[in-house]
């Protein structure tokens, strides 16, 4: 039996994962910034699920949620950093009032929850599941701020994977393509400052045309996450669905092409080995042999 602490359980992946874990017999600390929205979730599970308030932008609340998990279940071995939302609009359209709060949730919230959890998890081992996105695989017009936040999630997750291996803690980076949760409904904000110059790239109307039509089935995503948490050999990166896989393939091919195209130019930047260097005094000496 595993014990989970999951952020953002009021809807979508977080809620489905909390329910699926409890339904198979695990213990779950389900959290939401408004705990009222999840109060009823725990009822069917005979004390195996508790609901705890956690706005991930509040580091003290993350510590309190961890303390509650320890008090109730003696600790936990799976942390799921799921809470997040998107911001669409061109970089020039976005304002700091819009992008900074998005980083506070998607990146700094994940960091605070992780830092709160690690003193407990280093004792038990386990897994940290970080919700990235197809947007964390490759950047594209209209999603730049969200790309930046999810790329940062990828970077810190890769670093954590290496740091936490000695403690028996695995890291899983979940990279979903479009899945039918509330994400494109209420969890996307759009830059208020509309600039006609970016009409072709700002993704301003993406959510209106795509909400409800996403091909991804969140329950199938949850099944993959459960399987990966159970499997010690699961890979670090989990692109979910054909859209994420196609993005990963394009990214790998483009990266390969860039690396190869200027290989000889970009690789030749180390200091010359001792003894092989042409002294700068030789290169700059005058015909009289004296330095200029
Ligand atoms: N669905 C997709 O297509 C998709 C694709 C790629 C990545 N993702 C990622 O998947 C994760 C979950 O999204 P979802 O698809 O399940 O969408 P969702 O149904 O809209 O769920 C988002 C959750 O994040 C919570 N949240 C937002 N700000 C929070 C905060 N400050 N503190 C705590 N919780 C907060 C929301 O809670 P409130 O009810 O309080 O707002 C909600 O429970 C996100 O990280 C998202 O970036 C989703």
Automatic annotation (TrEMBL):
GO molecular function terms attached to this record: oxidoreductase activity
Stored PANTHER family: SHORT CHAIN DEHYDROGENASE (PTHR43976), SHORT-CHAIN DEHYDROGENASE_REDUCTASE FAMILY PROTEIN (PTHR43976:SF16)
Annotated Polar residues bias: 278-292
Protein name according to UniProt: NAD(P)-dependent dehydrogenase (Short-subunit alcohol dehydrogenase family)
Chain segments carrying region Disordered: 270-292
Entry's family note: Belongs to the short-chain dehydrogenases/reductases (SDR) family.
UniProt KW Protein transport keyword: no
Organism annotation: Bradyrhizobium elkanii
The keyword Lyase appears for this protein: no
Pfam families named in the record: adh_short
Keywords assigned: Oxidoreductase
